[in-house]
Amino acid sequence: MFTKEDLLSINSRKELLELAKKKKIKLKKAINRAKYEDELRLLQIELAHLQNHIEKHQLRVAILFEGRDAAGKGGSIKRFVEHLNPHTSGVVALTKPTVVEKGQWYFQRYIEVLPNRGEIKFFDRSWYNRAVVEPVMGFCTPVQYKTFMAQVPNFEHMLYEDGIHIIKFWFDITKDEQKLRFDGRKNNPLKEWKFSPVDQKSQELWEENTKYKEKMFTNTHTAFCPWIIVETNDKFTARLESLRHVLSQFEYEGKGKSGANLHTDPNVVYRYFRKSKNLEL
Q1: Which stretches are annotated as coiled coil (predicted)?
Q2: What CATH number is given to the structural domain containing 212?
Q3: Are strands 119-124 and 89-92 parallel, antiparallel or unpaired?
Q4: What angle do CA 27, 33, 37 make, to 5 degrees?
């Protein structure tokens, strides 16, 4: 990495290239990262404007982040919330249900953390745990799964009718890229905590996960609450495009004044039906 002294000593493009070669710095990668940081900052400014709009007009917004392990859900959520007012935003990442919660209606604990008026909530996984993870891992019975799949469209329609804006993201990753990220976690002492026994089984149960994922899309992709696919092999692009998609769903005061590019890339973020047959091949 260049130091402050390095940059002050450079007087020409040639000197910059020579120094980069000497220090074994890949300039293209550094330039792309700088562009990403600039775009991210502008989109976060737009998101702050959107949050003000949500507060002012007392809207309720719930954004669900679903996807396979290591697809980049947590990293994207972090970029969404890092500059928002924490009093009217928050991340929901529920742990496994307690004994009491297991005896309640499945959706009850999620209802308790839905956004109030003027709030935006980000769900790091959601009630859709029961659509894929739980049946694949044996954490629910076939009857519980069947009941959930029958109830969830009606549940979401009630939320929609009550005025809650729901955005459902599926972060899509290929099997090879998932393995690369798992290996990176295992070999990085700062990321080891992210790797769990469930992650270990993700590669082994890839096809089973795919089967349940497709059933989920078929039964829960609706006009009032569609699934939005985000291709995440390039996690930096995925973060920017998911931000753009959320911003595109609202008209708010000051929209576009930051100069951010607010046009989504249809090859990265799109509704489920558009490329469903090509997902994760």
Answers
A1: 13-60
A2: 3.40.50.300
A3: parallel
A4: 145
In a domain, 4, yes or no: no
Prediction pTM value: 0.87
Domain that holds residue 259: 10-278
Give the pLDDT confidence of 5-15 residue by residue, as tens digits: 777 787 777 77
Interatomic CA distance for residues 188 and 197, integer angstroms: 17
Q: Do 171 and 256 contact (CB within 8 A), yes or no?
A: no
Backbone φ, ψ for residue 168 (5° rounding): -110, 110
**Structure tokens of 159?**
């939320």
Helices 206-220, 142-161: axis angle to 10 degrees equals: 40
Find how far residue 44's CA is from the centre of its chain.
15
Kindly calculate the radius of gyration of the chain based on its CA atoms and give it in whole angstroms. 21
Cβ-count burial of 232 within 10 angstroms (0-12 exposed, 13-18 middle, 19+ buried)? buried
Q: For the segment 259-273, what is each residue's pLDDT rounded down to a tens digit?
A: 999 999 999 999 998
Q: Phi/psi at 63 (nearest 5 deg)?
A: -115, 120
The Cα–Cα gap between 94 and 113 comes to: 9
